Amino acid sequence: MFGIIHALTAITHSASASIDVVAGPIGEALVATGIGIAVAVPAVLAYNFFVRRVKAASADLDAFATDFVTLAQKAGFRVPAAATAPARRADGARQEAFA
C-alpha cells in the first residue's frame, strides 16, 4: 500500500509517469505483497489443520456421549429430578433440595 502511495506521490512531484519514477515504489509494493502472501499461506494452512483436528475431536466426543447415554439407558440408569438442578425460590435464592 505504501509503495503505491509513494509511486503516486513521486508522479505528482515529477509531473511525469516515467518508469524511473514509478519502478522503485511499485517494486516496494510488490515485495510487501509477496511477504504478505508468504506469511498468510502457512497461517491459513495451520488454521485449517487445527480446525480439522477440533472438528474430529468434537465428533469423537459426540459419538462417545451418544454411546454413553445409550449404555446408561440400557442399564436402567435414571437421574432423580431433585439431583438435576437446585430449585430456585421466587426471590432468586437457591432452595436446598434436601431440606
Description:
The protein has 99 residues and is mainly α. The chain has one domain. The chain is built from three helices and two strands. It has helices at residues 2-14, 19-74, 81-84, and strands spanning 87-88, 94-95. Strands 1-2 form a two-stranded antiparallel sheet. The longest helix has 56 residues, at 19-74.
Q: What's the gist of this structure?
A:
By secondary structure, the chain is mostly helical. It has helices at 2-14, 19-74, 81-84, and strands at residues 87-88, 94-95.
Return Rg in Å: 32 Å
Low-confidence stretches: none
Mean pLDDT: 80
For the largest beta-sheet, the strand count, sense and barrel status come to:
2 strands, antiparallel
Q: Would you tell me the structural class of the helices and strands?
A: mainly alpha
Distance between the termini: 70 Å
Q: Tell me the fraction of residues in β-strands, as a range.
A: under 5%
Q: Tally the helices.
A: 3
Give the helices and strands as they follow along the chain.
Answer: HHHEE
Number of strands: 2
Approximate shape = elongated
What count of domains describes the coordinates?
Answer: 1
The percentage helix is over 70%
Order of strands, main sheet, comes to 1-2
List keywords for this structure.
99 residues
Helix-strand blueprint:
Layout: H1 2-14, H2 19-74, H3 81-84, E1 87-88, E2 94-95
Antiparallel strand pairs: 1-2
Helix pairs in contact: 1-2
